[in-house]
């Protein structure tokens, strides 16, 4: 504990690092404040009653899929009709679209290889595409909140403007688009002048903002059961810490591929004779190279099975797909995650390019010929480590459904035991700690995470 306090003092003593942290905290406060500003056409005082009524009608389980994910990413702004309701998600969607289109469009491929100027152009394309995504999502969001609550006559006072009028739609769409662009700008400012990846930090803050409320609700339910409530809360917290530890391991786990570099003079004299004189390095292939993207892709598709219930509403099997805690939903969810893990890893890890770069720079994998054989070798290793990574990722994704009911009582707290939220929190915190460590080590201070794990993985 004494060493940790000394590390905090070291962080505060570095002026540049201190200013970056304070700037980041200031931007976070602005973002959180803006998330509580409601749309001008919405009566914020009535929104809480609307949401509570919807939950009592069973909407908490039906809306806990993709919509619940969006709400958690925005810190509740999505479900509270805030000016920041769309949050940073349109920018994330635009970034994914640009990344996927980069595989098929030669112009985008060229920009990816043009260095700083190419990245700047790609960023501009992503920003404009973000506005386009907002123009699609904003009307959809307004449609959802009007169709959801209009049937309840007792809640019509929630709208200052007639929900079907142009004075409701046009200003609300403009404000929602502006709010999302403002969130994107705040994230970029954190990246430029703060600490960590700004976009990721805003998402993490939105997720963490709902944790205290979820924990208080869980405590209230457990304490209402009698004397065992406090013990169960303690067990839940310990188990949650274990889950977080496993998520950290999944995030940093790598398979190291040894690489041997030899100089051109050594290569001319014979690689075999001088092999051991070269510099040995490693290619770290992550076990979970796809990150949380397979979960996001899978959740985006999970609304489709729920739509099938409209064709046969009496079918109890199909009805299970509307509940994120049902076994039907989670079995299909896990299978989709495994499929998308292989898909996203295949399109984002360029093994052929890695093999060409190695060959061009005089590097080789021991006992493997440079070129195509090296690419095939890396692809084979990547496929083997992706399978256990995808399985563990799917387990994390369905863990909330496993612990819900039998172990954790409330829906909100159960969702923190896995899935996208937990993995994003772990990944962002590790990335931010790594950047802080870099500043400390550059000034000859000990980092926040001095362990064998941090020395071997860089975290």
UniProtKB/TrEMBL annotation:
The keyword Transcription regulation is assigned to this record: no
GO biological process: intracellular protein transmembrane transport; protein targeting; protein transport by the Sec complex
Gene Ontology cellular component annotations, sorted alphabetically: plasma membrane
Compartment list: Cell membrane; Membrane
InterPro entries: SecY, SecY/SEC61-alpha, SecY_CS, SecY_dom_sf
Residue ranges crossing the lipid bilayer per the database entry: 21-42, 88-108, 128-150, 166-187, 194-211, 231-254, 287-307, 327-351, 385-407, 413-433
Keyword Transport: yes
Keyword field: Cell membrane, Membrane, Protein transport, Translocation, Transmembrane, Transmembrane helix, Transport
Pfam families: SecY (PF00344)
Signal peptide residue numbers: none
Superkingdom: Bacteria
Topology within the bilayer: Multi-pass membrane protein
Assembly: Component of the Sec protein translocase complex. Heterotrimer consisting of SecY, SecE and SecG subunits. The heterotrimers can form oligomers, although 1 heterotrimer is thought to be able to translocate proteins. Interacts with the ribosome. Interacts with SecDF, and other proteins may be involved. Interacts with SecA.
Family: Belongs to the SecY/SEC61-alpha family.
NCBIfam families from the UniProt entry: 3a0501s007
Role of this protein: The central subunit of the protein translocation channel SecYEG. Consists of two halves formed by TMs 1-5 and 6-10. These two domains form a lateral gate at the front which open onto the bilayer between TMs 2 and 7, and are clamped together by SecE at the back. The channel is closed by both a pore ring composed of hydrophobic SecY resides and a short helix (helix 2A) on the extracellular side of the membrane which forms a plug. The plug probably moves laterally to allow the channel to open. The ring and the pore may move independently.
Name the UniProt record assigns to this protein: Protein translocase subunit SecY
Natural source organism: Chryseobacterium indologenes
């Amino acid at each position: 504990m004494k060493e940790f306090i000394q590390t905090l003092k070291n962080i505060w003593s570095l002026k540049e690092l201190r200013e970056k942290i304070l700037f980041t905290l200031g931007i976070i406060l602005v973002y959180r404040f803006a998330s509580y500003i409601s749309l001008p056409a919405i009566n914020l005082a009535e929104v809480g009653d609307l949401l509570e009524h919807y939950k009592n009608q069973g909407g908490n389980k039906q809306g806990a899929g993709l919509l619940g994910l969006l709400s958690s990413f925005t810190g509740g702004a999505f479900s509270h009709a805030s000016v920041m309701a769309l949050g940073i998600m349109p920018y994330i969607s635009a970034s994914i679209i640009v990344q996927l289109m980069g595989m098929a469009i030669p112009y985008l491929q060229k920009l990816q290889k043009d260095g700083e100027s190419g990245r700047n152009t790609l960023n501009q394309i992503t920003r404009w595409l973000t506005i386009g995504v907002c123009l699609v999502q904003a009307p959809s969001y307004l449609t959802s909140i009007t169709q959801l609550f209009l049937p309840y006559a007792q809640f019509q006072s929630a709208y200052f403007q007639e929900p079907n009028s142009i004075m409701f739609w046009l200003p609300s769409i403009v404000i929602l688009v502006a709010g999302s662009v403002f969130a994107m700008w705040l994230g970029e400012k954190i990246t430029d002048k703060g600490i960590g990846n700004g976009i990721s930090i805003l998402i993490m803050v939105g997720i963490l903002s709902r944790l205290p409320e979820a924990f208080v609700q869980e405590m209230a339910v457990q304490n209402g059961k009698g004397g065992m409530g406090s013990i169960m809360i303690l067990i839940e917290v310990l188990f949650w810490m274990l889950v977080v530890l496993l998520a950290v391991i999944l995030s940093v786990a790598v398979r190291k591929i040894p690489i041997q570099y030899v100089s051109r003079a050594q290569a001319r004299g014979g690689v075999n004779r001088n092999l051991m004189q070269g510099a040995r390095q490693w290619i770290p292939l992550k076990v979970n190279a796809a990150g949380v993207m397979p979960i996001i892709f899978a959740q985006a598709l999970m609304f489709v099975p729920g739509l099938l219930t409209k064709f046969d509403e009496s079918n109890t099997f199909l009805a299970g797909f509307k509940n994120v805690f049902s076994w039907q939903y989670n079995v299909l969810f896990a299978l989709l995650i495994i499929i998308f893990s292989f898909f996203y890893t295949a399109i984002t890890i360029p093994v052929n390019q890695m093999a060409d770069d190695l060959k061009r720079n005089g590097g080789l994998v021991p006992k493997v010929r440079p070129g195509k054989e090296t690419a095939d070798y890396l692809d084979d290793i990547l496929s083997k480590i992706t399978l256990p990574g995808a399985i563990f990722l799917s387990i994390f994704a369905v863990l909330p459904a496993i612990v819900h009911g039998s172990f954790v009582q409330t829906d909100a707290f159960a969702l923190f035991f896995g899935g996208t939220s937990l993995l994003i929190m772990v990944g962002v915190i590790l990335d931010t700690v790594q950047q802080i460590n870099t500043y400390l080590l550059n000034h000859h201070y000990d980092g926040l995470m001095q362990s064998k794990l941090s020395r071997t993985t860089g975290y």
